[in-house]
């Protein structure tokens, strides 16, 4: 079976690597260069997008900001999973919030903004501090403002107005203000839903962000009650979208109560640990779901952590000397802050995982790999 992935980055690459042994063949469409490529070797294929769609048995996406014409073509093929509606919802925070309300899943109090009056109203009603986000096109914490003081309001509004004005009639731009949530930590759940509507979820993942970018994830330390909240939210959201494939949901944990931050209609960075922590990774399960194959196990084999490699031109090979550690390199051109690869490490229990993270912290400088040492200390 041939599968076409919209987007040709590391997520497409890891989907391809995970699917080869199932005899599934993945090609990727690079929306920037408008070329069809092999996402592992980066070799260019002599197919147009239309030809790639015709020869594919299933089409999916590795990101949510897909050009409208491409999305329409794929939707018309009848082979596109999780579907244009799910992708559009994940790519627009206004649609996302409407979905959460429909599915009755709790999130931060919010207000949509398309003019200044809405912004002033949000400040009055929700009260500062606020997190203000562009509804379209944001990722890795880009396109956000923190509104903390009355003195900043005018300056922030002028920047917001520029964004709103950059939209077109066909694709209008909007902004959302959210109450800043005093969370204890951030967690996410990755799950998969098949074409018959069966849902399976991976264990909850705890995530650490540095400057808005995910730096470290850890799975295998959660309590049942909190897992249950995340699973319920997953089922409600995936069913409301009649979703097929892997879906990620990010939450704020506020004293044991989960509030949804955002959803991602795709495989997700906070699920990369499943490559070593589970029998079937998020990538393979996504490939299985969109191809109509039976889903694989999402059970945790052993506590596992993932460390993102940001902006580095290589991963020190000595990390492989730490037991049950492996690296995943994306073969991209290095740029400051860019996601270049990740390191997965497992232990038979949390204590052993902590010891191994401690060994890794001795190799990986804190400046480039923040939080490894602190996480190790918290587990040992
Ligand atoms: P991603 O790369 O995860 O898609 P993004 O650009 O879509 O990132 P968000 O996940 O919405 O951005 O926000 C980035 C980070 O900002 C969050 O992980 C969280 O740390 C912080 N944040 C976002 N919204 C709020 C909020 N309402 N209250 C407190 N912190 C927030
Ligand atoms: Mg996001
Ligand atoms: Mg996020």
UniProtKB/TrEMBL annotation:
It catalyses: 5-amino-1-(5-phospho-beta-D-ribosyl)imidazole + hydrogencarbonate + ATP = 5-carboxyamino-1-(5-phospho-D-ribosyl)imidazole + ADP + phosphate + 2 H(+). The keyword ATP-binding applies. GO terms for cellular component: cytosol. GO terms for biological process: 'de novo' IMP biosynthetic process. It comes from the Bacteria. Transmembrane segments: none annotated. Pfam families: ATP-grasp, PurK_C, RS_preATP-grasp-like. Homodimer. This is N5-carboxyaminoimidazole ribonucleotide synthase. The gene is purK.
């Amino acid at each position: 079976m041939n599968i076409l992935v919209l987007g040709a980055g590391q997520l497409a690459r890891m989907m391809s690597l995970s699917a080869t042994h199932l005899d599934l063949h993945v090609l990727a469409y690079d929306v920037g260069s408008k070329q069809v490529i092999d996402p592992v070797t980066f070799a260019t294929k002599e197919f147009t997008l239309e030809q790639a769609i015709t020869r594919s048995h299933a089409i999916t996406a590795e990101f949510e900001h897909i050009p409208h014409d491409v999305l329409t073509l794929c939707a018309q093929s009848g082979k596109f999973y999780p579907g244009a509606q799910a992708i559009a919802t994940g790519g627009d925070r206004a649609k996302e919030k409407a979905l959460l309300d429909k599915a009755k899943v709790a999130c931060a109090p919010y207000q949509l903004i398309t003019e200044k009056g809405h912004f002033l109203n949000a400040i009055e009603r929700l009260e500062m501090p606020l997190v203000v986000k562009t509804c379209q096109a944001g990722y890795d914490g880009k396109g956000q403002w923190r509104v903390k003081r009355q003195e900043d309001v005018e300056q922030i509004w002028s920047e917001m107005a520029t964004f709103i004005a950059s939209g077109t009639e066909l694709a209008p731009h909007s902004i959302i203000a959210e109450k800043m949530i005093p969370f204890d930590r951030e967690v996410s759940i990755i799950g998969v839903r098949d074409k018959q509507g069966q849902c399976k979820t991976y264990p909850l993942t705890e995530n650490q962000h540095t400057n808005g970018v995910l730096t470290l994830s850890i799975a295998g330390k959660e309590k049942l009650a909190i897992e249950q909240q995340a699973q319920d939210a997953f089922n409600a959201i995936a069913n409301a979208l009649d979703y097929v494939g892997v879906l990620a949901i990010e939450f704020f944990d506020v004293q044991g109560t989960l509030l949804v931050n955002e959803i991602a209609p795709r495989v997700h960075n906070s699920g990369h640990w499943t490559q070593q922590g589970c029998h079937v990774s998020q990538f393979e399960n996504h490939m299985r779901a969109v191809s109509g194959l039976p889903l694989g196990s999402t059970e945790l084999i052993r506590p596992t952590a993932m460390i993102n490699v940001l902006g580095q031109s290589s991963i020190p090979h000595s990390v492989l000397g730490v037991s049950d550690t492996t690296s995943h390199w994306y073969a991209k051109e290095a740029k400051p802050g860019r996601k270049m690869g990740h390191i997965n490490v497992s232990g038979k229990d949390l204590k052993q995982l902590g010891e191994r993270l401690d060994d890794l912290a001795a190799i990986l400088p804190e400046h480039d790999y923040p939080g490894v040492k602190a996480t190790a200390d918290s587990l040992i």
